[in-house]
Amino acid sequence: DTGSAAAVPIDPRFDIAYVTPVTIGTPPQTLQLDFDTGSSDLWVFSSHTPTSQIRGQEIYTPDKSTTSKLLDGHTWSITYGDGSASRGNVYTDNFTVGGLAVASQAIQCAQQVSSSFTTEESIDGLLGLGFSTLNTVNPASQLTFFDNAKSKLGSPVFTADLKNKQAGTYDFGFIDKAKYTGEITYVPVNPDPGYWTFTSSGYAVGSGNFSGSPITGIADTGTSLVYLPTAIVTAYYRQVQGATNSRNYGGYVFPCSATLPPFTFGVGETKFTIPASYMSYAPVTDGSSTCFGGLQSSSGIGVNIWGDVALKAAFVVFNGANPPTLGWATK
Ligand SMILES: CNCc1cc([N+](=O)[O-])ccc1Cl
Prior knowledge:
The protein is mostly beta strands. Helix content is 6%, strand content 45%. The protein has helices spanning 115-118, 145-149, 230-237, 308-311; strands at residues 3-9, 18-24, 29-36, 42-44, 69-79, 85-97, 100-113, 125-128, 157-163, 166-172, 181-188, 197-200, 202-205, 215-219, 226-228, 244-246, 251-255, 263-267, 270-274, 280-283, 290-293, 295-297, 304-306, 315-319, 325-330. It is globular, with a radius of gyration of 20 Å. The protein starts with a strand and ends with a strand. Residues 17, 34, 36, 80-82, 84, 116-117, 120, 123, 126, 222 line the site of 1-(2-chloro-5-nitrophenyl)-N-methylmethanamine (4AV).
């Protein structure tokens, strides 16, 4: 079996996050979920979510599905890197993504979501694509959609083809040659503690020379920006007129009119260039002429993160074989 579904930016102006349609239950209830390789919980806004915390999101109502089953006594609670959080109870139900079906997928129903989820009206929940070891369900952790689907897939892979300000694709079970150019460079993945952790071979700022120092980090579709060591980030913003590290805005900002250099990162022998246009994320507030950078420091996080700003510059194969690997190709 295979599956293929669109990854649609939630905002036409800035690539904050991407949502993908899924169906849950019988008859099918369609929700738009944020596919997140940086976590491993599949949770949704639901009929168990207080209405005061719902603002336009679609919800899953297990009681309206003839195939839903309560996973009695199971609960979950998760906090993300940006401080947002959610928690709730658990059902199993039929679940499909782009024509790929899994019977009795664990569906974590939110009984509480933090304000940044409530205000993100176009995200009806998250679909974790990290390793199942990160799943937060107690007393028994649950498998991700990918882990449940793996045995049905021709090849135990999914691919991310995220795009700048336009819809991309998540494919499951196959590698679409039409989506990339050249060869795919595969690199090792350390699945402990549960992220798609790999080591980049180095970086360059603009037309500067390539610095071949290894950068270990995670490939994370659920994070908008790229977070790298401070030395790399300061080297980048030294090339941006008027850039400052703003305590007020919590990162590097610059005049939206500034000329930005592109940023290149290496995977094995292959070089990926993030165009300058991807390196300006968004105005700090609506209409401001000060822009927030797409590259920020990882010093406060504890891990380097290759988020959407970087992933958009590549075609990425998440290879769930044993051992797992990551494949990177230009496009
Ligand atoms: C923006 N804060 C909530 C949020 C977090 C994540 N996350 O993967 O960490 C995804 C979407 C949203 Cl809406």
